[in-house]
Protein backbone atom coordinates (compact mmCIF):
# COMPACT_ATOMS: atom_id res chain seq x y z
CA UNK A 1 0.00 0.00 0.00
CA UNK A 2 1.17 3.47 -0.81
CA UNK A 3 0.22 6.72 1.03
CA UNK A 4 1.00 10.21 -0.23
CA UNK A 5 -0.01 13.78 0.29
CA UNK A 6 -1.09 16.03 -2.57
CA UNK A 7 -0.25 19.71 -2.32
CA UNK A 8 -1.06 21.87 0.65
CA UNK A 9 -4.75 21.03 0.84
CA UNK A 10 -4.13 18.29 3.38
CA UNK A 11 -5.78 15.72 1.24
CA UNK A 12 -4.45 12.21 1.58
CA UNK A 13 -4.80 9.69 -1.16
CA UNK A 14 -4.86 6.06 -0.15
CA UNK A 15 -3.87 3.48 -2.62
CA UNK A 16 -4.39 -0.15 -1.65
CA UNK A 17 -3.00 -3.23 -3.22
CA UNK A 18 -6.57 -4.60 -3.60
CA UNK A 19 -7.63 -1.48 -5.52
CA UNK A 20 -10.18 -0.08 -2.87
CA UNK A 21 -10.95 3.52 -3.87
CA UNK A 22 -12.46 6.36 -1.82
CA UNK A 23 -15.61 6.19 -3.98
CA UNK A 24 -16.30 2.74 -2.55
CA UNK A 25 -16.04 3.85 1.12
CA UNK A 26 -18.35 6.93 0.99
CA UNK A 27 -21.65 5.19 -0.08
CA UNK A 28 -21.57 2.96 3.00
CA UNK A 29 -21.51 5.99 5.30
CA UNK A 30 -24.45 7.64 3.51
CA UNK A 31 -26.45 4.42 3.78
CA UNK A 32 -25.98 4.39 7.53
CA UNK A 33 -27.11 8.00 7.86
CA UNK A 34 -30.17 7.33 5.73
CA UNK A 35 -31.07 4.28 7.83
CA UNK A 36 -30.77 6.28 11.07
CA UNK A 37 -32.99 9.04 9.69
CA UNK A 38 -35.69 6.57 8.62
CA UNK A 39 -35.68 4.85 12.01
CA UNK A 40 -35.83 8.20 13.78
CA UNK A 41 -38.78 9.30 11.67
CA UNK A 42 -40.67 6.11 12.41
CA UNK A 43 -39.99 6.50 16.13
CA UNK A 44 -41.14 10.13 16.15
CA UNK A 45 -44.35 9.38 14.27
CA UNK A 46 -45.09 6.47 16.58
CA UNK A 47 -44.71 8.75 19.60
CA UNK A 48 -46.97 11.36 18.00
CA UNK A 49 -49.70 8.81 17.33
CA UNK A 50 -49.50 7.57 20.92
CA UNK A 51 -49.67 11.12 22.27
CA UNK A 52 -52.72 11.88 20.12
CA UNK A 53 -54.46 8.74 21.39
CA UNK A 54 -53.70 9.65 25.01
CA UNK A 55 -54.96 13.17 24.37
CA UNK A 56 -58.22 11.87 22.95
CA UNK A 57 -58.75 9.64 25.96
CA UNK A 58 -57.98 12.57 28.26
CA UNK A 59 -60.68 14.65 26.56
CA UNK A 60 -63.19 11.82 26.70
CA UNK A 61 -63.02 10.17 30.13
CA UNK A 62 -65.98 7.97 29.26
CA UNK A 63 -63.80 6.00 26.89
CA UNK A 64 -61.21 5.45 29.60
CA UNK A 65 -63.98 4.24 31.86
CA UNK A 66 -65.23 1.85 29.24
CA UNK A 67 -61.70 0.58 28.66
CA UNK A 68 -61.30 0.02 32.39
CA UNK A 69 -64.56 -1.89 32.50
CA UNK A 70 -63.32 -4.16 29.76
CA UNK A 71 -59.93 -4.76 31.35
CA UNK A 72 -61.07 -5.04 34.96
CA UNK A 73 -64.17 -7.20 34.99
CA UNK A 74 -66.02 -8.19 38.10
CA UNK A 75 -65.79 -11.91 38.70
CA UNK A 76 -68.77 -13.74 37.26
CA UNK A 77 -71.23 -14.92 39.92
CA UNK A 78 -70.95 -18.58 40.77
CA UNK A 79 -73.55 -20.64 38.94
CA UNK A 80 -76.13 -22.38 41.07
CA UNK A 81 -76.00 -26.16 40.87
CA UNK A 82 -78.27 -27.39 38.10
CA UNK A 83 -81.26 -29.44 39.16
CA UNK A 84 -80.99 -33.01 37.93
CA UNK A 85 -84.30 -34.39 36.70
CA UNK A 86 -85.75 -36.38 33.82
CA UNK A 87 -87.62 -33.94 31.60
CA UNK A 88 -91.15 -34.92 30.61
CA UNK A 89 -90.97 -32.80 27.45
CA UNK A 90 -90.50 -29.33 26.10
CA UNK A 91 -92.78 -26.40 26.89
CA UNK A 92 -92.91 -23.65 24.31
CA UNK A 93 -94.86 -20.48 25.16
CA UNK A 94 -95.95 -17.40 23.23
CA UNK A 95 -96.73 -14.52 25.57
CA UNK A 96 -99.47 -12.03 24.71
CA UNK A 97 -100.04 -8.43 25.72
CA UNK A 98 -97.77 -5.60 26.82
CA UNK A 99 -94.48 -5.80 28.71
CA UNK A 100 -95.87 -6.37 32.20
CA UNK A 101 -98.57 -8.82 31.17
CA UNK A 102 -95.85 -10.84 29.45
CA UNK A 103 -93.55 -10.49 32.46
CA UNK A 104 -96.13 -12.04 34.78
CA UNK A 105 -96.85 -14.78 32.24
CA UNK A 106 -93.16 -15.69 32.04
CA UNK A 107 -93.08 -16.11 35.82
CA UNK A 108 -96.15 -18.34 35.66
CA UNK A 109 -94.73 -20.49 32.88
CA UNK A 110 -91.48 -21.08 34.78
CA UNK A 111 -93.60 -22.27 37.72
CA UNK A 112 -95.63 -24.58 35.45
CA UNK A 113 -92.44 -26.02 33.90
CA UNK A 114 -91.09 -26.67 37.41
CA UNK A 115 -94.31 -28.30 38.54
CA UNK A 116 -94.45 -30.66 35.54
CA UNK A 117 -90.69 -31.33 35.27
CA UNK A 118 -90.48 -29.85 31.78
CA UNK A 119 -87.76 -28.15 29.78
CA UNK A 120 -88.81 -24.57 29.08
CA UNK A 121 -87.92 -22.91 25.79
CA UNK A 122 -87.08 -19.18 26.16
CA UNK A 123 -90.49 -17.51 25.75
CA UNK A 124 -91.60 -15.77 22.57
CA UNK A 125 -92.92 -12.23 23.02
CA UNK A 126 -96.02 -10.70 21.47
CA UNK A 127 -95.40 -8.95 18.14
CA UNK A 128 -98.97 -8.73 16.86
CA UNK A 129 -100.74 -6.66 19.52
CA UNK A 130 -101.77 -3.02 19.17
CA UNK A 131 -98.18 -1.89 19.83
CA UNK A 132 -96.63 -4.17 17.17
CA UNK A 133 -93.33 -4.27 19.04
CA UNK A 134 -90.79 -6.48 17.18
CA UNK A 135 -88.67 -7.06 20.31
CA UNK A 136 -87.52 -10.56 21.16
CA UNK A 137 -86.91 -11.85 24.68
CA UNK A 138 -83.20 -11.04 24.54
CA UNK A 139 -83.94 -7.49 23.34
CA UNK A 140 -85.58 -6.78 26.70
CA UNK A 141 -84.25 -9.29 29.21
CA UNK A 142 -80.78 -10.65 29.96
CA UNK A 143 -81.39 -14.13 28.59
CA UNK A 144 -78.15 -15.67 29.93
CA UNK A 145 -78.90 -14.46 33.44
CA UNK A 146 -82.46 -15.76 33.12
CA UNK A 147 -81.27 -19.24 32.19
CA UNK A 148 -78.34 -19.44 34.62
CA UNK A 149 -80.14 -18.05 37.67
CA UNK A 150 -82.89 -20.68 37.46
CA UNK A 151 -80.71 -23.73 36.75
CA UNK A 152 -81.49 -25.22 40.15
CA UNK A 153 -85.23 -25.12 39.45
CA UNK A 154 -85.88 -25.72 35.78
CA UNK A 155 -83.96 -26.47 32.61
CA UNK A 156 -84.30 -23.61 30.09
CA UNK A 157 -83.06 -23.75 26.50
CA UNK A 158 -82.86 -20.99 23.91
CA UNK A 159 -84.57 -23.01 21.19
CA UNK A 160 -86.10 -26.40 20.51
CA UNK A 161 -83.81 -29.21 19.34
CA UNK A 162 -83.79 -29.47 15.55
CA UNK A 163 -85.65 -32.76 15.54
CA UNK A 164 -88.74 -30.94 16.84
CA UNK A 165 -88.70 -28.18 14.23
CA UNK A 166 -91.62 -27.87 11.85
CA UNK A 167 -89.36 -28.04 8.82
CA UNK A 168 -88.64 -31.63 9.83
CA UNK A 169 -92.36 -32.37 9.86
CA UNK A 170 -92.96 -32.17 13.60
CA UNK A 171 -96.18 -30.50 14.75
CA UNK A 172 -96.35 -29.65 18.46
CA UNK A 173 -99.71 -29.55 20.21
CA UNK A 174 -100.90 -25.94 20.44
CA UNK A 175 -103.36 -24.85 23.10
CA UNK A 176 -104.12 -22.06 25.55
CA UNK A 177 -104.29 -23.36 29.13
CA UNK A 178 -107.48 -22.63 31.06
CA UNK A 179 -107.29 -19.26 32.82
CA UNK A 180 -106.71 -19.05 36.59
CA UNK A 181 -105.87 -22.77 36.79
CA UNK A 182 -104.42 -24.45 39.88
CA UNK A 183 -101.79 -27.16 40.19
CA UNK A 184 -104.35 -29.95 39.94
CA UNK A 185 -105.38 -28.82 36.44
CA UNK A 186 -101.81 -28.86 35.15
CA UNK A 187 -100.96 -32.20 36.80
CA UNK A 188 -104.14 -34.02 35.74
CA UNK A 189 -105.08 -32.36 32.43
CA UNK A 190 -101.85 -31.07 30.90
CA UNK A 191 -99.08 -33.42 32.06
CA UNK A 192 -100.63 -36.58 30.52
CA UNK A 193 -100.56 -34.90 27.10
CA UNK A 194 -96.75 -34.92 27.15
CA UNK A 195 -96.70 -38.71 26.93
CA UNK A 196 -98.08 -38.33 23.40
CA UNK A 197 -96.76 -34.89 22.44
CA UNK A 198 -93.18 -34.31 23.54
CA UNK A 199 -93.61 -30.61 22.78
CA UNK A 200 -96.54 -28.42 23.76
CA UNK A 201 -97.02 -24.84 22.69
CA UNK A 202 -99.07 -22.58 24.94
CA UNK A 203 -100.18 -19.87 22.52
CA UNK A 204 -101.71 -17.68 25.22
CA UNK A 205 -100.18 -17.27 28.64
CA UNK A 206 -101.92 -14.35 30.39
CA UNK A 207 -103.41 -15.24 33.81
CA UNK A 208 -103.09 -19.00 33.27
CA UNK A 209 -102.11 -19.69 36.89
CA UNK A 210 -104.35 -18.94 39.86
CA UNK A 211 -103.58 -16.16 42.33
CA UNK A 212 -104.34 -18.30 45.37
CA UNK A 213 -104.38 -21.96 46.39
CA UNK A 214 -100.91 -22.55 44.93
CA UNK A 215 -98.25 -24.32 47.01
CA UNK A 216 -95.80 -22.08 48.85
CA UNK A 217 -92.73 -23.29 46.95
CA UNK A 218 -94.30 -22.38 43.58
CA UNK A 219 -95.47 -18.99 44.85
CA UNK A 220 -91.94 -18.24 45.99
CA UNK A 221 -90.59 -19.41 42.63
CA UNK A 222 -92.90 -16.95 40.85
CA UNK A 223 -91.40 -14.20 42.98
CA UNK A 224 -87.86 -15.37 42.36
CA UNK A 225 -88.37 -15.20 38.61
CA UNK A 226 -90.01 -11.78 38.83
CA UNK A 227 -87.65 -10.09 41.26
CA UNK A 228 -84.35 -11.78 40.44
CA UNK A 229 -84.27 -13.75 37.19
CA UNK A 230 -85.95 -11.22 34.89
CA UNK A 231 -83.22 -8.60 34.63
CA UNK A 232 -83.41 -6.10 31.82
CA UNK A 233 -80.61 -5.96 29.26
CA UNK A 234 -77.51 -3.93 30.21
CA UNK A 235 -78.52 -1.23 27.69
CA UNK A 236 -81.97 -0.79 29.23
CA UNK A 237 -80.64 -0.91 32.78
CA UNK A 238 -77.92 1.67 32.06
CA UNK A 239 -80.39 4.17 30.62
CA UNK A 240 -82.98 3.44 33.30
CA UNK A 241 -80.43 4.07 36.05
CA UNK A 242 -79.41 7.29 34.34
CA UNK A 243 -83.02 8.50 34.37
CA UNK A 244 -83.32 7.66 38.07
CA UNK A 245 -80.06 9.45 38.90
CA UNK A 246 -81.12 12.58 37.01
CA UNK A 247 -84.40 12.70 38.91
CA UNK A 248 -82.89 11.92 42.31
CA UNK A 249 -80.24 14.62 41.86
CA UNK A 250 -83.06 17.17 41.76
CA UNK A 251 -84.89 15.93 44.82
CA UNK A 252 -87.78 13.54 45.57
CA UNK A 253 -90.17 12.69 42.75
CA UNK A 254 -93.57 11.14 42.12
CA UNK A 255 -94.00 8.65 39.29
CA UNK A 256 -97.48 9.19 37.85
CA UNK A 257 -98.54 6.29 35.64
CA UNK A 258 -100.92 8.33 33.53
CA UNK A 259 -102.66 5.59 31.57
CA UNK A 260 -104.35 8.02 29.19
CA UNK A 261 -103.08 6.54 25.95
CA UNK A 262 -104.94 5.75 22.74
CA UNK A 263 -105.06 1.99 23.20
CA UNK A 264 -106.38 2.26 26.76
CA UNK A 265 -109.12 4.70 25.82
CA UNK A 266 -110.14 2.72 22.75
CA UNK A 267 -110.25 -0.53 24.69
CA UNK A 268 -112.15 0.89 27.68
CA UNK A 269 -114.41 3.19 25.66
CA UNK A 270 -113.59 6.03 28.07
CA UNK A 271 -113.89 9.34 26.21
CA UNK A 272 -114.59 11.84 29.00
CA UNK A 273 -112.98 15.15 28.01
CA UNK A 274 -112.39 14.07 24.39
CA UNK A 275 -113.79 15.91 21.40
CA UNK A 276 -116.48 14.26 19.26
CA UNK A 277 -113.88 13.59 16.55
CA UNK A 278 -111.56 11.93 19.07
CA UNK A 279 -114.38 9.79 20.44
CA UNK A 280 -115.20 8.56 16.92
CA UNK A 281 -111.53 7.80 16.23
CA UNK A 282 -111.29 5.70 19.40
CA UNK A 283 -114.46 3.82 18.50
CA UNK A 284 -113.12 2.99 15.02
CA UNK A 285 -109.93 1.68 16.58
CA UNK A 286 -111.87 -0.52 18.98
CA UNK A 287 -113.77 -2.10 16.10
CA UNK A 288 -110.56 -2.63 14.14
CA UNK A 289 -109.15 -5.08 16.70
CA UNK A 290 -111.28 -8.25 17.02
CA UNK A 291 -109.85 -9.30 20.40
CA UNK A 292 -111.31 -6.16 21.99
CA UNK A 293 -114.65 -7.88 22.37
CA UNK A 294 -116.74 -5.11 23.92
CA UNK A 295 -117.64 -2.70 21.15
CA UNK A 296 -120.60 -0.54 22.16
CA UNK A 297 -119.69 1.26 25.39
CA UNK A 298 -121.39 4.11 27.27
CA UNK A 299 -118.42 6.14 28.47
CA UNK A 300 -120.10 8.08 31.30
CA UNK A 301 -121.57 4.92 32.85
CA UNK A 302 -118.14 3.29 33.00
CA UNK A 303 -116.61 6.46 34.39
CA UNK A 304 -119.12 6.67 37.26
CA UNK A 305 -118.41 3.03 38.08
CA UNK A 306 -114.70 3.82 38.42
CA UNK A 307 -113.79 1.71 35.40
CA UNK A 308 -112.00 4.46 33.45
CA UNK A 309 -108.46 5.77 33.88
CA UNK A 310 -108.38 9.25 35.37
CA UNK A 311 -108.04 12.02 32.82
CA UNK A 312 -104.96 14.27 33.09
CA UNK A 313 -107.20 17.02 34.48
CA UNK A 314 -108.69 14.71 37.13
CA UNK A 315 -105.25 13.41 38.06
CA UNK A 316 -104.04 16.99 38.55
CA UNK A 317 -106.82 17.72 41.06
CA UNK A 318 -106.11 14.48 42.93
CA UNK A 319 -102.37 15.21 43.22
CA UNK A 320 -103.11 18.64 44.64
CA UNK A 321 -105.71 17.25 47.04
CA UNK A 322 -103.24 14.65 48.31
CA UNK A 323 -100.94 17.48 49.35
CA UNK A 324 -98.24 17.54 46.66
CA UNK A 325 -97.10 21.13 46.12
CA UNK A 326 -96.15 22.73 42.82
CA UNK A 327 -92.42 22.24 43.42
CA UNK A 328 -92.70 18.43 43.42
CA UNK A 329 -91.17 16.62 40.46
CA UNK A 330 -93.84 14.66 38.62
CA UNK A 331 -92.49 12.02 36.26
CA UNK A 332 -95.05 10.92 33.66
CA UNK A 333 -94.62 7.18 33.17
CA UNK A 334 -96.55 6.51 30.00
CA UNK A 335 -96.53 6.50 26.25
CA UNK A 336 -97.99 9.31 24.15
CA UNK A 337 -100.86 11.00 26.00
CA UNK A 338 -104.01 11.11 23.87
CA UNK A 339 -104.75 14.73 23.06
CA UNK A 340 -101.10 15.55 23.68
CA UNK A 341 -100.25 19.06 24.93
CA UNK A 342 -103.89 20.18 25.14
CA UNK A 343 -104.71 17.51 27.72
CA UNK A 344 -101.50 18.08 29.70
CA UNK A 345 -101.97 21.84 30.05
CA UNK A 346 -103.61 21.69 33.50
CA UNK A 347 -100.97 19.30 34.86
CA UNK A 348 -98.14 21.47 33.53
CA UNK A 349 -99.65 24.62 35.08
CA UNK A 350 -100.16 23.00 38.49
CA UNK A 351 -96.80 21.19 38.52
CA UNK A 352 -94.22 23.09 36.42
CA UNK A 353 -91.57 20.46 37.23
CA UNK A 354 -93.41 17.71 35.42
CA UNK A 355 -91.11 15.68 33.15
CA UNK A 356 -91.05 12.71 30.79
CA UNK A 357 -88.13 10.57 29.71
CA UNK A 358 -88.06 12.41 26.38
CA UNK A 359 -87.42 15.65 28.30
CA UNK A 360 -84.56 14.23 30.39
CA UNK A 361 -82.59 12.34 27.75
CA UNK A 362 -81.03 13.30 24.46
CA UNK A 363 -82.87 12.05 21.33
CA UNK A 364 -79.92 9.87 20.34
CA UNK A 365 -80.03 8.11 23.74
CA UNK A 366 -83.62 7.03 23.15
CA UNK A 367 -83.20 6.34 19.46
CA UNK A 368 -82.40 2.64 19.88
CA UNK A 369 -85.63 2.17 21.86
CA UNK A 370 -87.94 4.09 19.53
CA UNK A 371 -90.73 2.01 17.97
CA UNK A 372 -90.16 -0.61 20.67
CA UNK A 373 -92.96 0.05 23.14
CA UNK A 374 -91.93 -2.72 25.54
CA UNK A 375 -88.38 -1.41 25.80
CA UNK A 376 -89.69 2.12 26.42
CA UNK A 377 -92.07 0.68 29.04
CA UNK A 378 -89.10 -1.02 30.72
CA UNK A 379 -87.51 2.40 31.28
CA UNK A 380 -90.72 3.70 32.86
CA UNK A 381 -90.93 0.53 34.96
CA UNK A 382 -87.46 1.14 36.42
CA UNK A 383 -88.21 4.78 37.22
CA UNK A 384 -91.58 3.90 38.77
CA UNK A 385 -90.06 1.25 41.05
CA UNK A 386 -87.39 3.72 42.20
CA UNK A 387 -89.71 6.70 42.76
CA UNK A 388 -90.47 8.16 46.17
CA UNK A 389 -94.19 7.77 45.51
CA UNK A 390 -95.91 5.79 42.77
CA UNK A 391 -99.44 6.71 41.69
CA UNK A 392 -101.19 4.77 38.90
CA UNK A 393 -104.35 6.28 37.43
CA UNK A 394 -105.58 2.84 36.31
CA UNK A 395 -105.01 -0.64 37.75
CA UNK A 396 -103.54 -2.27 34.66
CA UNK A 397 -100.67 -4.72 34.50
CA UNK A 398 -97.88 -2.17 34.92
CA UNK A 399 -99.61 -0.58 37.91
CA UNK A 400 -100.02 -3.94 39.61
CA UNK A 401 -96.52 -5.25 38.93
CA UNK A 402 -94.86 -2.00 40.03
CA UNK A 403 -96.98 -2.07 43.20
CA UNK A 404 -95.79 -5.61 43.93
CA UNK A 405 -92.16 -4.69 43.25
CA UNK A 406 -92.40 -1.77 45.65
CA UNK A 407 -93.93 -3.99 48.32
CA UNK A 408 -91.03 -6.40 47.83
CA UNK A 409 -88.56 -3.53 48.31
CA UNK A 410 -89.98 -2.65 51.73
CA UNK A 411 -93.54 -1.50 51.17
CA UNK A 412 -92.56 1.71 49.41
CA UNK A 413 -95.39 4.23 49.15
CA UNK A 414 -97.83 3.38 46.39
CA UNK A 415 -101.13 5.27 46.34
CA UNK A 416 -103.79 2.99 44.90
CA UNK A 417 -106.53 5.35 43.81
CA UNK A 418 -110.18 4.62 44.53
CA UNK A 419 -111.41 5.84 41.17
CA UNK A 420 -115.11 5.37 41.87
CA UNK A 421 -114.91 7.50 45.00
CA UNK A 422 -112.65 10.04 43.31
CA UNK A 423 -114.98 10.57 40.34
CA UNK A 424 -117.81 11.28 42.77
CA UNK A 425 -115.68 13.79 44.69
CA UNK A 426 -114.25 15.44 41.57
CA UNK A 427 -117.72 16.00 40.10
CA UNK A 428 -119.01 17.43 43.40
CA UNK A 429 -116.05 19.81 43.54
CA UNK A 430 -116.38 20.87 39.91
CA UNK A 431 -120.09 21.68 40.28
CA UNK A 432 -119.43 23.75 43.41
CA UNK A 433 -120.98 21.37 45.95
CA UNK A 434 -117.63 20.71 47.69
CA UNK A 435 -115.19 23.54 48.34
CA UNK A 436 -111.48 22.88 48.06
CA UNK A 437 -110.85 22.13 51.74
CA UNK A 438 -113.73 19.64 51.90
CA UNK A 439 -112.64 18.03 48.65
CA UNK A 440 -108.99 17.71 49.72
CA UNK A 441 -109.92 16.32 53.14
CA UNK A 442 -112.26 13.74 51.62
CA UNK A 443 -109.62 12.58 49.11
CA UNK A 444 -107.04 12.07 51.86
CA UNK A 445 -109.44 10.19 54.12
CA UNK A 446 -110.47 7.89 51.25
CA UNK A 447 -106.83 6.86 50.67
CA UNK A 448 -105.50 6.60 54.21
CA UNK A 449 -105.32 2.80 53.97
CA UNK A 450 -104.42 2.63 50.27
CA UNK A 451 -100.75 3.61 50.53
CA UNK A 452 -99.08 0.24 49.94
CA UNK A 453 -99.08 -0.87 53.57
CA UNK A 454 -98.79 -4.58 54.41
CA UNK A 455 -102.13 -6.27 53.85
CA UNK A 456 -103.56 -9.66 53.03
CA UNK A 457 -104.37 -10.31 49.41
CA UNK A 458 -108.07 -9.92 48.69
CA UNK A 459 -109.45 -13.41 47.96
CA UNK A 460 -112.80 -13.87 46.22
CA UNK A 461 -113.78 -17.50 45.84
CA UNK A 462 -114.88 -18.32 42.26
CA UNK A 463 -114.26 -14.72 41.18
CA UNK A 464 -110.55 -14.63 40.30
CA UNK A 465 -110.91 -11.60 38.03
CA UNK A 466 -112.19 -9.53 40.93
CA UNK A 467 -109.69 -10.58 43.60
CA UNK A 468 -106.26 -9.06 44.19
CA UNK A 469 -103.65 -10.02 41.62
CA UNK A 470 -100.82 -12.18 42.96
CA UNK A 471 -98.12 -9.92 41.49
CA UNK A 472 -99.52 -6.77 43.10
CA UNK A 473 -99.27 -8.31 46.57
CA UNK A 474 -97.16 -11.49 46.61
CA UNK A 475 -97.52 -11.79 50.38
CA UNK A 476 -95.93 -15.27 50.52
CA UNK A 477 -92.64 -13.68 49.44
CA UNK A 478 -92.77 -10.61 51.69
CA UNK A 479 -93.12 -11.97 55.19
CA UNK A 480 -92.22 -14.99 57.28
CA UNK A 481 -94.39 -18.06 56.75
CA UNK A 482 -97.43 -17.48 54.58
CA UNK A 483 -98.85 -14.29 56.09
CA UNK A 484 -97.92 -10.75 57.06
CA UNK A 485 -99.78 -10.77 60.37
CA UNK A 486 -96.78 -9.37 62.24
CA UNK A 487 -96.67 -6.36 59.89
CA UNK A 488 -100.36 -5.69 59.43
CA UNK A 489 -101.72 -2.41 60.66
CA UNK A 490 -104.76 -2.90 62.84
CA UNK A 491 -107.90 -2.88 60.75
CA UNK A 492 -105.98 -2.92 57.46
CA UNK A 493 -106.99 -6.44 56.48
CA UNK A 494 -109.11 -7.12 53.40
CA UNK A 495 -110.34 -10.64 52.66
CA UNK A 496 -113.68 -11.69 51.26
CA UNK A 497 -114.72 -15.34 51.20
TrEMBL record:
GO terms for biological process: fucose metabolic process. Belongs to the glycosyltransferase GT106 family. One of its GO terms (molecular function) is glycosyltransferase activity. It is a single-pass type II membrane protein. One of its GO terms (cellular component) is membrane. It is found in: Membrane. The keyword Transmembrane applies. It holds the Pfam family O-FucT. InterPro entries: FucosylTrfase_pln (IPR024709), GDP-Fuc_O-FucTrfase (IPR019378). Keywords: Carbohydrate metabolism, Fucose metabolism, Glycoprotein, Glycosyltransferase, Membrane, Signal-anchor, Transferase, Transmembrane, Transmembrane helix. This is O-fucosyltransferase family protein. CDD domains: O-FucT_plant (cd11299). Pathway: Glycan metabolism.
Amino acid sequence: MEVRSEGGGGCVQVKCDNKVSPAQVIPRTRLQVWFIRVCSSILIWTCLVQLMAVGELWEQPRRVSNLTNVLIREPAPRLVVARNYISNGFLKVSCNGGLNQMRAAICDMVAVARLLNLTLVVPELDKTSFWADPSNFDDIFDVKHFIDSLRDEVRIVRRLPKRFNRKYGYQPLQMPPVSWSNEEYYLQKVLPLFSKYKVMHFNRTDTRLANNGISLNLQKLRCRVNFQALKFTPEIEALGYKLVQILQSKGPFVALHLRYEMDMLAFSGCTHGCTQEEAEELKRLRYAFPWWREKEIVSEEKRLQGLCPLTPEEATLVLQALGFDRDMQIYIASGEIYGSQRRLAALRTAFPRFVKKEMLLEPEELQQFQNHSSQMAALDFMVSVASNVFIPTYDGNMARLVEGHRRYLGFKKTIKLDRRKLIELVDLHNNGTLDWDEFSFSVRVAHGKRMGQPTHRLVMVDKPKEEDYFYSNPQECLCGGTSCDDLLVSGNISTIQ
